[in-house]
Amino acid sequence: MQPHTNIDAYLVLGFGFGIVLFFRGLRTFRTNLVVADTPVIPIRAVAMGIAQVHGHAGGETPFPSPVSGTPCYAFRVKIERYVGRNGWTHHRTDQNGKRFYLADETGRILVDPREAEFDVPVNCRRQVGDPPVTFSLASLIHAFPLNAYDDSDVSATAKTDNELLEYAGVGYGCVDAFRFTEYCIEPDNDYDVLGTCIENPKPEGQQDRNLITKGTHDSNFLISSRTADQLKQGIGWRSTMMVIGGAGLVIFCAALFMSRHGLF
């Protein structure tokens, strides 16, 4: 492949990444508007519909997360695969969880976290295999993740490298490098939850009658380790940077591509 063809490929990749970043920013901005317009209320005062509450996570026995073995109520694992010239690319995302209670001084409410977006620190980051040392626009982009948290607490029940490859859905003989980034909703931590309160179809007691989950008409469902005020500031700044950065990258890559090919 000729050098100028390489540059064109990087420009096309940058253009596509800019579009994704731009629309992610718009989505994050919309979430910010919902957070700003939905005040945090005591759990006892929650009514049907969109609601935002803050409290302490607890409930039944937690289960071990799939990468680090951390006791949790929910997890999200982003799996990336190193693919040739493209660098680190998204392989798949795995998310699951079980219902837990969020409690404050006024009461408690059940939360179903399985379809929630997570705004929590990285619990664990593992890599299996070493990618070749090459330069590409994709590898440069992935060198600066949007969430800059990093905490490598790995318990004795963490998976081995071979178990992680099996978890990724590839065989033991795979020579590609994989990267696993894990986020967890853990017991005894405080969380801010924005979601839709519905009537629990299978209550087990008086305090189980309400359930916060992802709504059918309003899909905003966010679990954050930050307070509402911190959340507003963080989402507002991040969405602005994503929109501006995405638009700027699209314009730069498109202009340079057209200039190189004499289109203007």
Structural write-up:
- The protein is an alpha+beta fold and 264 residues long.
- The chain has one domain.
- The chain is 31% helix and 30% strand.
- The chain has four helices and 13 strands.
- The chain has helices at 3-37, 137-142, 161-168, 228-260; strands at 49-58, 63-64, 71-72, 74-83, 87-97, 100-104, 107-111, 117-119, 122-128, 178-185, 190-199, 210-213, 222-224.
- The strands form three sheets. Strands 1-6-7-12-11 form a five-stranded mixed β-barrel. Strands 5-4-10-9 form a four-stranded antiparallel β-sheet. Strands 2-3 form a two-stranded antiparallel sheet.
- Strand 2 and strand 3 form a beta hairpin.
- Helix 1 (3-37) runs antiparallel to helix 4 (228-260).
- The longest helix is centred in the first third of the chain and has 35 residues, at 3-37.
- The radius of gyration is 21 Å and the shape is flat.
